[in-house]
Design brief:
single chain; 474 residues; alpha/beta; TIM Barrel; eight-stranded parallel barrel; two-stranded parallel ribbon; 39% helix
């Protein structure tokens, strides 16, 4: 591994920050996504959050209250030896409605203090600009990314943060898991659907608007500071054909293309032929402006970041399709060769190496693994210890595969930030019990707990991994 390899951890404001009414912050889309049976209908954009029961619980509003605990949390990251920390800004903390003339100084000051705390420990900030987070006012006024108006709002937001942090932040990601827009439209992009609306048309129009916004942000970033490194971010994991039946192979290829579409545009600078043909078949006509395609072509990203939790499997056999994996927004046919987590996510370390090689072969740009981890139920022993050997086993196997991709296959990799380095609210389920962290946070699914932080067994294990640059993985 390179000597300057960026070992660290990753979180998102909407899953850990809290403080949703503090510092003049506005409401964000995540603030109206509930825990429980209504969560998925809201995330899919099929249930109006304004019609939720009055007693609904919204876990992201407090989350783990990093807003008030960040100094303690960053000190723990420093104790582990983090070289970098990937986190996100809350858009509505900086522009409460998304349309203010000037950014909210309290919000900017909070993130400045946060970043300064990281830099105090020589931890490189890696900032996600938009991580499943849109000011709610923009959702209600314009329909979120359905409207091109969001492009200007987003670029204004980027201008404020790029200028404020031009000497403190080098790595930026424009949109988290941009392809999630297709799978959980409200969570991914604040999209809600009206009765009779063409959902495919709406989703790809929103995708176009986000892609143009990302390219404009990339242009602006390089103007403000040529040393900025701007990345896109993909929810990755190759689709395997279930069998060598050519129909299964073709199905897997097409499933992969659904996800590559976004990154093809961000990394290569133009709409791929297969997407243009799909638009023709589906009767999709995008609202575009003449300069859109020039901007997309001239302002591609500097690196490609991605999340990897598992591979996926595709088949055209209806019987198999009816037995999909559980618990994931991108469900797939079960792979009989893989074990699964408690939430049904199949575990495939070699799949990480396969995914890295696929992405690097396809784009020839540096990669950055910004999410990888195991959601599991952790049990606190009587003495307060938490023995999470299952997490260590999962991460060890994936780090070994990652290092093979780098050292054996020659993939250019900037860093590795396991997801949820401190326990946080699960994006998919809203649960706290689905834990990823090296640091335990005392809080349950219903929001009860002291928020006390404590180290798990994996904390010391990961500290050793970083100290030895991955040479000791015991």
């Amino acid at each position: 591994m390179r000597k300057d390899f960026l070992w660290g951890g990753a979180t998102a404001a909407n899953q850990c920050e809290g403080g949703y009414k503090e510092g003049n912050r506005g409401m964000g889309s995540v603030d109206v996504i509930p825990w429980g049976e209504n969560r998925f209908p809201v995330m899919l954009g099929e249930m109006d959050y304004r019609q939720l029961p009055e007693d609904s619980y919204y876990p992201s509003r407090e989350a783990i209250d990093m807003y008030h605990h960040y100094k303690e949390d960053i000190a723990l990251f420093a104790e582990m030896g983090f070289k970098c920390y990937r986190f996100s800004f809350s858009w509505s903390r900086i522009f409460p409605t998304g349309e203010e003339e000037q950014p909210n100084e309290e919000g900017l000051k909070f993130y400045e203090d946060f970043i300064d705390e990281l830099l105090k420990y020589n931890i490189e900030p890696v900032v996600t600009i938009c991580h499943f987070d849109v000011p709610l006012a923009l959702v209600e006024k314009y329909g979120s990314w359905k409207s091109r108006r969001l492009i200007d709002c987003y670029v204004k937001y980027c201008d404020a943060i790029f200028r404020r942090f031009k000497d403190k932040v080098k790595y930026w990601l424009t949109f988290n898991e941009i392809n999630m827009l297709l799978h959980l439209p409200f969570m991914g992009a604040g999209l809600q659907f009206k009765e009779g609306e063409n959902k495919t048309q709406v989703k790809y129009q929103a995708a176009h608007n986000e892609l143009v916004a990302s390219a404009k942000a990339t242009r602006l970033a390089h103007q403000i500071n040529p040393d900025f490194k701007i990345g896109c971010m993909l929810a990755a994991g190759n689709y395997y054909p279930y069998s060598c039946n050519p129909e299964d192979v073709w199905e897997a290829l097409n499933r992969d293309r659904d996800n590559y579409f976004f990154i093809d545009v961000q990394a290569r600078g133009e709409y791929p032929a297969y997407a243009r043909k799909m638009f023709e078949r589906e009767g999709i006509v995008l609202e575009t402006e003449e300069e859109d395609f020039r901007i997309l072509k001239e302002h591609t990203v500097d690196f490609l970041s991605f999340s990897y939790y598992s591979s996926r499997c595709a088949s055209t056999d209806q019987e198999l399709i009816n037995k999909t994996t559980a618990g994931n927004a991108m469900k797939s046919v079960k792979n009989p060769y893989l074990k699964a987590s408690e939430w049904g996510w199949q575990i495939d370390p070699l799949g990480l190496r396969i995914t890295m090689n696929t992405l690097y072969d396809r784009y020839q740009k540096p990669l950055f693994i910004v999410e990888n981890g195991l959601g599991a139920i952790d049990r606190v022993a009587e003495d307060g210890s938490i023995c999470d050997d299952y997490r260590i086993e999962y991460l060890k196997a994936h780090i070994e595969a990652m290092m093979d991709a780098v050292d054996v296959d020659g993939v250019d990799l900037l860093g590795y930030t396991p997801w949820g380095c401190i326990d946080l609210v699960s994006a998919s389920t809203g649960e706290m019990s689905k834990r990823y962290g090296f640091i335990y946070v005392d809080k349950d699914d219903a929001g009860r707990g002291t928020l006390k932080r404590s180290r798990k067994k994996s904390f010391d294990w990961y500290k050793q991994v970083i100290e030895t640059n991955g040479e000791i993985l015991k």
